[in-house]
Write a structure and sequence with these properties.
The structure is a homodimer of 213-residue chains. With 213 residues, chain A is mainly α. Chain A has 2 domains: 44 residues, Orthogonal Bundle (Arc Repressor Mutant, subunit A); 147 residues, Orthogonal Bundle (Tetracycline Repressor, domain 2), CATH 1.10.357. The first copy, chain A, has 9 helices and no strands. The first copy, chain A, starts with 16 loop residues before the first helix and ends with a helix. At the A-B interface, helix 1, helix 6, helix 7, helix 8 and helix 9 of A face helix 1, helix 6, helix 7, helix 8 and helix 9 of B. The first copy, chain A, binds a DNA duplex (18 and 18 nucleotides) through helix 3.
Chain lengths: 213, 213
DNA sequence: GTCTATAAATAGATAGAC
DNA sequence: GTCTATCTATTTATAGAC
């Protein structure tokens, strides 16, 4: 990835103001939610004048949708690739779980922002953004259907299977965030779980859930 | 439950203003989150003057904590009772799942409010409220430990087991809310799942997850 | 593209009459 | 206990100079 930095003290046009705003917005929205974040907060974090945000984005909602849409598009591409890969359904499922965790590790704002939007009932999302969300679900559903057709999976309603895997994934990310608040690490539900263990547990649970008997 | 209603047109002291505020706050906070709700919104829904809210509660945060605390205390009592009941661990686990769903059915604000607070990293909760949250987790952990001691469950980290069961539960509630928004019922991830099916699925998945091999 | 200044609306919270 | 009116701070958003 190319790194573009403005020369120190430069007064000319900053090449990546938009990117700085975008990244600051992702972090802020993830940390405090749509209503909890002010446009000033984003400007401050991005080290950008507030008016610049309105120069690059129509308004706060459009910026938010851009962040969530980009996030969903990225994970959607990953899932679609896995679903289309040349692997057994069981391997695809394991890969789905592993990639989801790795994806979240590389983009810490992702799970919390997604969980927040889900918890809120997705009131900020338009149909276009929801369609990106759908792509993730459909990719997962394809893995399931292939497995059922091959007889390696028992038939389970894709919605139930999806929530059974993604729900714990997101909830664990939220748990880690709660634990990060000061004075909480002693509480038993906030002990650290290595992501290797998380992945292994979810993979085993998912395989058992789908196992024909 | 006794029903107390002020006589129509009464100008005297309303007996249950506090309750009206409390219930309105639960509904509003659940629907739009701490930052998304204005004290005016709560006053309007409760059909109470805004100043009355500050007469009964110190401020917005104290009101919010009262709502969440009451919610956690109620579910905590239920879980503790199940853990102490005279049942096999497997039956206790099934009962935990069923009661959690039934509890949410009877109190529609519960799952969303809880998921919201979790997603936010519980920034609004003090240690006292978190302790109530802990009680729910500990009750669940006791069921697990009893099962492991009796050999009916394999040993699984209680945090992983807890998120694996409660995560899907909460995520499904959020899903139902997303589906409720207009123009969304056609999307495949928003199809309705009967709660009977949800319970059965989670019970089966949980038992398989914990099954020794 | 970038900045300052400010408009316009809304938020949380309180004073004080009844 | 209940109400009206209001204070103060903050918020989204824009106008307009450079």
């Amino acid at each position: 990835m190319a790194i573009r930095t403005a020369s120190p003290g430069s007064k000319g046009p900053r090449p990546d103001t938009r990117t700085a705003v975008f990244q600051a917005a992702a972090a802020e929205f993830s940390a405090r939610g749509f209503d909890g974040v002010g446009v000033d907060d984003i400007a401050e974090r991005a080290k950008v004048n507030k008016a610049m945000i309105y120069y690059h984005f129509a308004d706060k909602l459009a910026l938010y949708r851009a962040v969530v849409g980009d996030m969903l598009a990225t994970i959607g591409t990953t899932v679609t690739e896995i679903a289309a890969a040349d692997l057994t359904p069981a391997d695809k499922l394991n890969r789905f779980i592993e990639q989801f965790v790795r994806h979240a590790d590389a983009r810490p704002w992702f799970p919390t922002l997604m969980l927040r939007e889900i918890a809120a009932g997705a009131p900020h999302l338009d149909l276009e953004t929801l369609t990106l969300m759908k792509a993730v679900f459909l990719g997962f559903g394809k893995i399931l259907a292939d497995g059922a057709a091959a007889g390696t999976f028992r038939p389970v309603h894709p919605v139930l299977a999806y929530t059974s895997i993604v729900g714990p994934l997101l909830m664990n990310a939220a748990r880690e965030r709660m634990a990060a608040e000061p004075g909480r690490s002693q509480l038993p539900m906030f002990v650290a779980i290595p992501h290797q263990d998380l992945i292994a547990h979810l993979q085993l649970t998912a395989q058992r859930m789908l196992e024909p008997r």
